Structures are given as C-alpha cells and as structure tokens.
Amino acid sequence: GPVRLGANPDWHLDFKSGKRWDPGVYSLEIPLTFDRGHDYKVPWELARLQHLPTLALASALSGDSAFRERALSHIADFVAQNPIYRGINWTCTMDVGLRAVSWVIALDLVRDSALDEEFWVKAAEALFDHGLVMKGKHRGTTNVGYIHGGEATNVVTDRVSLKAEARSHDRLFRAKIISQIEKEFRSAARE
Description:
The chain is of the alpha+beta class. Helix content is 45%, strand content 12%. It contains 6 helices and 3 strands, in the order αααααβββα. The protein has helices spanning 41-47, 52-62, 65-81, 93-109, 117-130, 171-190, and strands at 132-135, 138-148, 161-167. It has a 3-stranded antiparallel β-sheet. 19% of the residues are buried.
C-alpha cells in the first residue's frame, strides 16, 4: 500500500524492508546483494527523481509554486545527502544518468522562476558531478548526447547510433575514458 516518505525522503532506505545503506561508503565498495530480504533498487528508483518533471510541470500549469518548491527541495536535499560517489545511489551509472535527465527537464520547466544565482550554480555543479569521471588524480567528463534507435517499429531495432563525448585536459586519460566507453557498448551489443 501507500507509504508516506516525508517532505524529503531517506534516499538510502529500502522503505519496504527497512534496510538502510550507509551514505558514507564509497559506492563501488557496496555489495549489491540479492535475495536477502531487501532490494537496493527501491532507493535507486526513488533517487532517479523521475517525479521532478511532473512536479515542475504541475507548477508551470497550475501556477502553484508549492510543486516547484518541493521539486527544488528534493534536488537540494539529494545533493546534501548523497555526496558524489558515496552511498547506494551512485552505484548504478544508468540511474545516475536518469537522475541527471530528470533534473534537466525539471529545471528547464522552472527556469523562469525567481531562483537566485546561488541555486543555479549549485545545480550546475551537481549536474557536472553526474558526468564526472575520476580515477586517482585524473579527472574528466563524459556523456552520451544523442541516441537513435534505427527505423524498426517493434521493440527490436535494426541499428542504434549515438553521439557521445569525453573531456579531460589529460590526453591519455581522455583516451582511457573513450576506450572504456567503447568496450562497454561493444559488450552490451554482444548481449
């Protein structure tokens, strides 16, 4: 049945089982355990923040700022409670990407609101973190900006094309990022 999550939910909690993951643990050191009475996908689903565009659209259509304020509160609280690469909500890159898309859509819908410059700076920094690649002292960013699923009309497309970018001031690290992306896409295509 329905569960009340509060004004700002506990982003690290499987509210169905009561299991809570430590938000201070490095995300890649968190074991993704199966069949133990809890489900890490519960906080993942919540942390995708896919409800933000709905809240922002409700605010834009109704003129009721309460919807916008709740969406912005969730962004601010998520950033405060989920430091980059810490906790369960940074373990799945797909969810990190979905979260960034939700933020961009919601922020676009409220862009004409009277939000101060400090908010926009923090929002931009948080979005940058969602595409940040760090390994040791090396830093870079990566994103897939365009995906086209071919011309098929059923669920299996005849081809997929994409445009992506990787950026780093370190030429060798940038090459490593690109190599890893290519490796992962080739692996996914084989499956």
